[in-house]
Amino acid sequence: MSAVKGVVNSMILGLGMALLLATGSAAAEMKVAVVDYGKLMQESPQAKAVSESLKNEFTPRQRDLQAQQASVKSKEDRLQKDGETMTQEQRARADKELRDGARDFARKQSELQDDFNARKNEEMSRLQRTLIEEVRAYAKAQGFDIVFADGVIYSTPSFDITPAILTALQAHTARPGAAPPAPASGSPTAPSKPTNH
Q1: Do residues 15 and 151 touch, judged by C-beta distance below 8 A?
Q2: How many alpha carbons fall within 13 Å on the CB side of residue 16?
Q3: CB 150 within 8 A of CB 37
């Protein structure tokens, strides 16, 4: 159902864009661009930094969890192997330790997943705001009237400002607070005004 909704939204957006471009001389002066938001979310230095930060933050807990899982597995193997020779009291104690260990492992695993998801959502929200602001700043600096992101099925490369935005994001990583760079060669420009003879 959401795929159908996405196609319908894309068609509506495409029709809207076509109407904008077909409205005569106003459209001839309009400067339009497209940005691949998914590519920005994957390839920008800021996205890579978020991914690395989350990895560094959660790897120690993941390692601890793996060690605890190995310990539970070891206790389970020992109980299966030595259970026949244990006294009833020893077996009951080992069985309780195994259940308690497995329950503690499951709780910690769930907490880790919840904590990771919460942090990831927080960082992705911050990253999205950064990317949107960068696209807006670039579009304003370069005089674009409209920039499309989601819902564009096709555009020619001349309308795609994604590489220029990635360059600007990389520049911000190198020197925070830098102004957006000038358009790269091949960056979209306003369509030329038709001449009336």
Answers
A1: no
A2: 12
A3: yes
Distance CA 170, CA 51 (A): 16
- CB count in 10 Å sphere of residue 163: 16
Distances (CA, A) of 70 to 20, 62, 90, 105, 109: 62, 12, 21, 10, 13
In sequence order, the 6+-apart residues with CB closer than 8 A to the CB of 173 are 45, 46, 49
CATH architecture of the domain covering 31-174: 2-Layer Sandwich (3.30)
Contact 49, 56 (CB under 8 A): no
The 10 Å CB-count burial string (b at 16+, else e) for 42-52 is eebebbeebee
Contacts of 143 (CB under 8 A, 6+ apart): 31, 190
- pLDDT grade, residue 154 (50/70/90)? confident
Query: Is the pLDDT assigned to residue 137 strictly greater than 60?
Result: yes
If DSSP codes are grouped into helix, strand and coil, which group holds residue 33?
Answer: strand
Return the sign of the alpha-carbon dihedral for residues 178, 57, 129, 153: positive
Length reported for the chain: 197
What pTM does this model have?
0.65
